[in-house]
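Hi team,

Below is the intake form for ABC transporter ATP-binding protein from Phytohabitans flavus. Please confirm the fields before the structure is written into the shared record.

FORM ID: S-0412
PROTEIN: ABC transporter ATP-binding protein
ORGANISM: Phytohabitans flavus
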Amino acid sequence: MADGQGRRAGTVAAVEDVTLSITPGQAVAFAGPSGSGKSTLLRLASAQDRPDTGSVVVDGVRLEALSSRQATRFRRRIGVVSHDSRLMSALTAVENIMFPLLYQKVSFDPYERALHVLDAVGLAERAAAEVSDLSDGERQRVVLARALANRPRLVIADEPAAGLDHRAATEVLDLLKRMTGTYGMTLLLSTTDDAVAARCPRVVRLREGVVVDDTTADTGPAARDAARHWIKRSAPVF
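The structure came back. Fields below:
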């Protein structure tokens, strides 16, 4: 993904000399306190920022070489879930998911896909609900459904459960991990919470823009078999 990348904000290095390689389909948590560079890494990986030095390569695409128009097209291929993701208040839950699909001119039926993905996040009965009638947890599940509706190969989740109560946060995180795992999507997640980070098999810890630890949990045959069994047994289908 990254090779010696650096990004400065003013005269302060947001991230510096970061070198990472992430396997397709891997779930990685970037953990650390506020201001440690987590969100900057995610912005670099989603072509929202450009590195001042080094290179960022995602799915064979060298992001710093993209024009503004190419970067926009690249971002349409990924899913983004954030604690401050916006839903369109004038639209219903299902319309919020359909709208970007219509804009992208996808080959499948946007309405049917939107209904399927809402069902996958447990909101089938709320499809026609207006955004103002949804709870915070329900809104974040709509955000998740919208991000995954086009089945992207890469999902960027910047503090996806921030501001939610424990129950709602657990539901969102469980759905995010389960659904990305089911379809082999690469998940890059940022968090200040060690318990959230521990949900990912790989945890990259940052402090003041520098990687201070990079740990991968057991991924041997027994662990992989257990993961496949859990996914097959419990994952929603969309």
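SUMMARY LINE: Confidence is low (pLDDT under 50) at residues 8-13, 220-238.

Thanks, M.
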